Amino acid sequence: GKATGKGMLSKGHHVTFVDIDEKTLNYLESEGYQTLLFQNISLEETDIIFVSVCTPTVDGHIVLDHLLSAISRIGKALGTLTEESSQKYRVVVIRSTIPPGTTENLIIPLLEKNSQKRVRQDFGVCVNPEYLREKTAEKDFAHPWIVIIGESDPKAVKILEKLYMPFGCPIQRVSTIKVV
After folding, report:
1. What is the per-residue burial (b if ≥16 Cβ within 10 Å, else e) of 27-61?
2. Taking Cα atoms as reference points, which of 153, 180, 138 lies closest to residue 33?
3. Mean pLDDT of the chain
4. What torsion, rounded to 10 degrees, do the Cα atoms 39, 157, 118, 54 define?
5. N or C: which end of the chain has fewer CB within 10 A?
6. What kind and span of H or E run contains 151?
7. What's the confidence (pLDDT) of residue 35?
8. DSSP tag of 119
C-alpha cells in the first residue's frame, strides 16, 4: 500500500497509512507520513479505503486470511459511523490479489454482515488490481500504463475514475461478478 499511498499524496489527497505492525508504522512515521494502528481505525473522515494486504499463495491456493480479517474490521468500522457521517458514500477498494468471485462471494457479504449496511446503497466496493513491480512500485504507480477497475457499483467506479484521472492513463472498467 505504500506505493498507492505515496501516489495519492502526490496528487494532493490526504492519506493515512494503516497497518497492524507498529514497526512498519514507525518507519512510515519517520518518513513523515500519517499512520494509524488498524485496531484504532475510524472511517468518520474517510472517503476511500484502499485495502492492500498480503494474499500469499500456498500449495497453489491464495490464502485470504489477512484480507478477510481486514475486511471484517473495515465492516465493523463502517458500522460504527455516526448518523451524520454515515450519509457519506464510502468506497472500499481491493488492491490485493484475489481469485474471481471473491468480491461478490466473500468480501461484500462480510462487509455487509459486519457493518449492518448494504453495498450499492450505503457504500461501494471495487477491485483495483496492482500492476506494480516490487523494486519500482512507487514509479509504476505514479506512471501507470493502465488502471483496471472491477466494478460492482457504478457510483463507486465514478468516484475511483475521478481519483485516477490526474494520472493520465486509460481506465478500463470490468465486472467483478464471476461469469460461469
Report:
1. ebeeeebebeebeebebeebebbbbbbebeeeeee
2. 138
3. 89
4. -30
5. C
6. strand 147-151
7. 93
8. B
Residue owning grid cell 507498529: 22
For the segment 116-171, what is each residue's pLDDT rounded down to a tens digit?
Answer: 999 999 999 999 988 877 788 788 788 888 899 998 789 999 999 999 999 999 99
Model confidence at 177, in pLDDT bands (50, 70, 90)? low
- pLDDT at position 48 is 94
Q: Is 64 within 8 Å of 98 (Cβ atoms)?
A: yes
| Backbone φ and ψ of 114, nearest 5° | -80, -20
Query: What's residue 178's pLDDT?
Result: 52
What separation in angstroms does the CA of 130 have from each of 21, 102, 109, 175? 22, 16, 23, 17
What's the chain's length in residues?
180
Q: Indicate if the pLDDT at residue 84 is higher than 80.
A: no
The single residue listed with the C-alpha cell 471484517 is: 72
Q: What are phi and psi of 109, to 5 degrees?
A: -60, -35
Q: Say which residues have a Cβ less than 8 Å from residue 172's Cβ, sequence separation at least 6.
A: 146, 147, 148, 149
Q: How far apart are CA 73 and CA 132, in angstroms?
A: 26
Q: H/E element holding 94? A: strand 90-94
